[in-house]
Design a protein that fits this description.
With 174 residues, the chain is an alpha+beta fold. The chain has one domain: NADH Oxidase (3-Layer(aba) Sandwich). Helix content is 37%, strand content 16%. The chain contains six helices and four strands, in the order ααβαβαβααβ. It has a four-stranded antiparallel β-sheet, sandwiched between helices. Helix 1 crosses helix 4. The protein binds flavin mononucleotide (FMN). The site of flavin mononucleotide has 10 residues, from strand 3 and helix 5.
């Protein structure tokens, strides 16, 4: 595809989900930029109906993973050193789209800084389940908020990922 020599378009077109991470923690400054890019996303009426918590506590993440998988060997978030949970206030009309857009800004910003990411539905689904309530409380996710997106972040063990194929026929003109 024509890139127009544009760094934003190149970043979008070259991003792909990362499923193998180094144990090195994400640089604090880079993480700060990624999170700020998240809250810069468009959102309904600028209500910003989100709660964003990033977790780097390995003990907590390992315990959460064990509660989901029952097996400490496999990791639903691929042993990423940072996981960001984006939750939305269910009383707000557009919380789900707002949280998704924030997550998208984060993964694009991360990719532009050579930081890998993967959205992890297993974490989101578990935290919203009855068994996950204990962890949601531990994370101090406000009452009435639903976890909408969980984003694993870290340095990829290899940068040789390529984006999966997309079906351009899904785009129609009317
Ligand atoms: C809502 C959502 C949930 C996802 N959950 C998972 C997941 O639990 N585990 C995983 O490895 N990837 C997950 N992904 C990543 C997708 O599999 C990935 O984005 C898709 O295959 C396209 O590949 P790409 O991101 O490399 O372009 C999820 C993506 C989205 C948007």
């Amino acid at each position: 595809m024509e890139s127009f020599n544009n760094v934003v378009i190149e970043t979008i077109m070259n991003r792909s989900s990362v499923r193998s991470y180094k144990s090195d923690q994400v640089n604090d400054q880079a993480l700060g930029v990624i999170l700020k890019c998240g809250i810069q996303a468009p959102n309904g009426w600028n209500h910003q109906p989100w709660d964003i918590v990033y977790v780097q506590d390995k003990t907590f993440l390992d315990e959460l993973n064990l509660a989901i998988t029952g097996n400490s060997g496999s990791s639903v978030f691929y042993h990423a050193p940072t996981v960001v949970f984006i939750s939305g206030d269910k009383r707000d009309d557009y919380y789900a789209s707002d949280c998704s857009l924030a997550a998208q800004n984060m993964v694009i910003a991360a990719s532009s800084l050579d930081i890998g990411s993967c959205i992890i539905a297993y974490l989101t689904d578990f935290l919203n389940s009855e068994k996950g309530q204990k962890y949601k409380t531990q994370l101090k996710i406000p009452e009435g908020y639903e976890v909408c997106v969980s984003v694993a972040l870290g340095y990829a063990t290899s940068m040789t990922h390529s984006p999966g194929p997309r079906d351009a026929n899904k785009i129609r003109k009317y």
